[in-house]
Amino acid sequence: MLTEIDDDDVAELVAWRRGHTRRGAARAPLIAPATVNRSTTEVLKKLFKAAKVQPEPDWKRHWLKEPQERVRELQPDEAEALDAAARDDYRPIMDFADESGLRLNECLLKWSEVNWQGGQIVKAGKGDRKVVVSITSRIREILWPLQGHHSEWVFTYICKRTKDGRIRCARYPITYKGLKTEWKRHRKRSGIKDFRFHDKRHDFATKLLRNSRNLKIVQKALNYADIKTMMRYAHVLDQDVAKAVESMQNERTESRNKSRRSHLKPLKRKVKNEFTL
Q1: Model pTM?
Q2: How do the domains of the chain map onto residue ranges?
Q3: Which residue pairs, CB below 8 angstroms and at least 24 apart, start in 39-42?
């Protein structure tokens, strides 16, 4: 019963969940504090709120500290190095990720999700929310030549050797696991450090915000449900803030100097008249 759950029970649940590894592998790293919070404490808290059970556990006590999500922007020389290190058959999906800002699993498109006439790509994204991407001229340039490679999946790779039922030189759909593996090799070949596939999304957002100066546009482009999520990119507008502050200060200084000059004029006339007398 919810009324029987106390702080000790919540603490035991959190401790149990913290011992889980990613994807259940024995040697995989432990799941992140954010995953623990979202799958235990937050779920219980919502249940208590919905049932209006009192008293509630001390939720703050059980909320694990989460590291602040960093926003990594790709520098021009790094972008060139990544582009040069890309495999030809994986290049389209890498380019698509760069140009769309989609998450890794969202990049695994089916042709049924591509609406050429409507000019949109529509698919299920994180949390089964609908993700919509406009087919810009650049995205059309990436996708159009891929037609005919596979009847169902948009992005495919060329098998390098005959193995596990796959035939050398034949095309097969790019999978989630395959893309993650190739991304690690791709990044290693490029020599770029500390750049995840998900950072392509952050890079897309920062560059779009710098170009548009509009958080709402970036929110829409990245299919974020909450505008608060966009605050992680607010640093991009620091330069705009600095320019606005400087402009305000210049106007205020000019106004102050003008006021002082107008105040000094009568005083100068008075001194001049006294000197003449």
Answers
A1: 0.69
A2: 2-62, 76-237, 245-277
A3: 40/10, 40/13, 40/14, 41/10, 41/14
